[in-house]
């Protein structure tokens, strides 16, 4: 597997989706394999229909981690 973390200053859904599309294209080109799953921290920037629609139409699964609360 491959793991990467990207810090994005503007975490609005359209910006995150743009970064995700670019990163997926980069990975698939570099490793010659299809991205199978995206693992997210279940933050609100990922909780949108545009993101899920993109991932569904490309056949990429989504694993949402449970939200945790800080004491």
What keywords describe this structure?
2 helices, two-stranded parallel ribbon, 71 residues, alpha+beta, 39% helix, 11% strand, globular
Please give a structural write-up.
- This protein is an alpha+beta fold.
- The protein is 39% helix and 11% strand.
- The protein is built from two helices and two strands.
- It has a two-stranded parallel ribbon.
- The mean pLDDT is 83.
Number of strands: 2
The helix count comes to 2
Order of helices and strands: HEHE
The CA-CA distance between the termini, in Å, is 32 Å
Helices and strands, with pairings:
Elements: H1 13-31, E1 37-40, H2 49-57, E2 61-64
Parallel strand pairs: 1-2
Q: How would you concisely characterize the structure shown here?
A:
This protein has 71 residues and is of the alpha+beta class.
């Amino acid at each position: 597997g491959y793991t990467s973390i990207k810090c994005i200053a503007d975490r609005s859904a359209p910006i995150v989706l743009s970064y995700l599309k670019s990163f997926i294209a980069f990975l698939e080109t570099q490793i010659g394999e299809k991205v199978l799953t995206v693992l997210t921290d279940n933050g609100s920037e990922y909780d949108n229909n545009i993101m899920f629609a993109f991932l569904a139409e490309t056949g990429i699964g989504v694993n949402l981690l449970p939200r945790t609360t800080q004491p």
